[in-house]
Amino acid sequence: MVCRAGIVRSVRSAGICLLLAIFGGVPARAGLHIIDDLGRAVDLPGPAHRIVSLAPSLTESLFAIGAGDRLVGRTAYCDYPAEALQVPSVGGMTNPSIESVVACRPDLIVMSMEGNTREDFPRLLSLGIPVYVSNPRTLAGIYHSLDDLGVLTGNRDRAQHFIDSLRDRARSLQTAAKRTSPSVLVLISLQPLMVAGANTLLNELLTLAGARNPAAALPGHYPAISREAVLLDPPDVLFVTSDLPADPAALTALFPEWKQLRAIRENRVYSLDAAILSRPGPRALEGLRLIIETLSKGTP
Question: Where are the domains of the chain?
Fold first, then answer.
């Protein structure tokens, strides 16, 4: 039997907690709450301690804000920093093993809209595990994702300090950028021929580096273009991602008419590290530095 004094104490305690919640002494909403890049609410009862990351950029971000030790699963492409390689793999970005994800016993799954597949999303949701989706296309978007991860891991102060350091570095690099406004085209695929267009991180980095992207006016993020279209607005410089040949001879073997391009004639074809520039994460400013350094020595 429960004694009357115990009941009275319980009622009084409940009343006090309710008053504190109403007047600000105790938050009315417990746990952690953010809105991800799909506009979905992601709620956790407390900081995540067992995280599966399905995107290299998010794996890098977790380590950057001091939450790498929370990682219990990652994709085979999550290869930076070196410590990430010690974490068990759950498969690829487009074909993660749901069974392996479950075996990690995560309390949070983080994934991206680019790289991960639309089909995997409902399958992951069906597990009943909170899923955070990131889709940054700008430096501001990267900062926002870092802040979200800071909230979800209880490391927001450290995340904010890191974000401030990135902002400072962006300003410093932009100040040092050469202002010659060269025309720079970034090739991300040769067959089919695809380039980095507007509303991409690569386009923003080119702009910050003082360059003009002739593909920025084309529809789509990574539009397919014709080989002849490149001649209509000829680039001063060609960047190719590191998984493609950066040899002018290799390009003209595929596209003989490109021999008339200034970038080809003057040997201004440069390789960019795809692992840095294709990942919208904490190394984006290193990508900006590489672009600025390359343009400073390789433009008129």
Answer: 32-173, 179-298
Rounded CA-CA distance 81/100 in Å is: 22
Q: What are phi and psi of 230, to 5 degrees?
A: -65, -30
Distance between CA 299 and CA 266 in Å, rounded?
A: 10
Mean pLDDT by 10 residues, the chain (300 residues): 36 39 42 95 97 97 98 96 97 92 97 81 93 95 98 98 97 84 94 94 94 94 94 95 89 96 95 90 95 79
**Per CATH, domain 179-298 is 3.30.2290.10:** no
Q: Do domains 32-173 and 179-298 have the same CATH topology?
A: yes
pLDDT value at residue 288: 95
CATH, domain range 32-173 = 3.40.50.1980
DSSP bridge partners of 89: 74
pLDDT score, position 22: 36
